[in-house]
Amino acid sequence: MTYQEAFGTSAEYMGHSPFSSHKLAWRSFLEWRWYMEDLVKAQRETRLLGQESQNLLDSLVAAGDDEEKGRISESAILGNIWVFVLGGYHTSSNTLHFIFILLAIHPEIQRELQKSLDEHFGDRPPSTWTHEVDFPALLNGHLGAVIAETVRVFGVLPFIPKSTGSSSQTLTLDGGLYTVPAETTILINTSAVHRNPKYWPITPPKPGERAPFPVSNWDPWRWLQIESGNGLFNPRPGSYISFSEGARQCIGKRFAQVELCAVLARVLKEGSIELAVKGGNSEKGSLDWAQARDHAIKELSDGVGFGMSLELFGKVELSFVSRD
Ligand code: HEM
């Protein structure tokens, strides 16, 4: 499918629009395609040379060359790259951004997390850490709890768009049966689901916090069930939909969890994240600690909005310091 088929020729008019934002969008659209075509070409050449490379791009290129199973088209390869870049980049990076700030606001939680990493890894250097041994332990412990709680309170998709499609659908709500007509668009309000006190009890504000800022309800240890040996708390179906549920749930969930565990374990084993404060490690800090914390908490409420995903538009200065 060409871009004309996908978007109609009207999309081309953006390039002739008097608005610079339209021109930029059009140029980005074209350039992104050219970059990706170059990447696909390079990956194809690597394959032709018989060089091993196990990555997502290689799987897509292989599917494009698979005569036996039926090739997927060039535009399907580009479309899939687009979905993975769109779905995979902003989601994990913004989640990481929120986690860094939340840990800086809550040094006591950060210390407990670092203690759990020290207990798990001991003196083993990162070069010996493995997906098979270390990832399941991290995901089912303190680190997994911090990630799960952050995507609950600061879920990257505050709403998930769905459609009933060509036929009507029935749903049960509080014992009543309802019919939703065909071709109806439904927005599932993830934020509201994740704040329903029936499933997610409100945590009293921690010292220095002022409700109702969402950060006051960020309580990672609510997920830990270590005493009972069950790993993390298993929420009731439908009450935790950060990665959605069902056939179209996030295909990159495990990828995101591995990525976040790897980055956070590495950063926090060797360093700490602090709010930049006056006289502290960062030259930029101009506030004392309590002021910097209040500012960060406020930004996590007022400064958060939706761009490509939920993100912090406000500014919070952080320092990364060595634990030595
Ligand atoms: C914290 C990280 C992430 C969160 C919270 C998240 C969440 C979601 C959600 C809520 C959906 C919508 C599912 C639906 O429509 O029912 C989705 C879809 C998707 N995600 Fe993620 N995602 C994350 C990371 C990633 C990563 C790292 C990748 C790729 C490597 C990825 C790839 C995708 C794709 C391809 C879809 C579309 C799936 C489909 O329509 O069948 N996501 N994600």
Automatic annotation (TrEMBL):
Keyword Coiled coil found: no
Keyword hit for Phosphoprotein: no
Species in which this protein is naturally found: Venustampulla echinocandica
Binding annotation for heme: C250
Cofactors named for this entry: heme
Single GO MF descriptor: monooxygenase activity
PANTHER family according to UniProt: BIFUNCTIONAL ALBAFLAVENONE MONOOXYGENASE_TERPENE SYNTHASE (PTHR24291:SF50), CYTOCHROME P450 FAMILY 4 (PTHR24291)
Record Pfam families: p450
UniProt-recorded name of the protein: Cytochrome P450
Protein family membership: Belongs to the cytochrome P450 family.
Keyword line: Heme, Iron, Metal-binding, Monooxygenase, Oxidoreductase
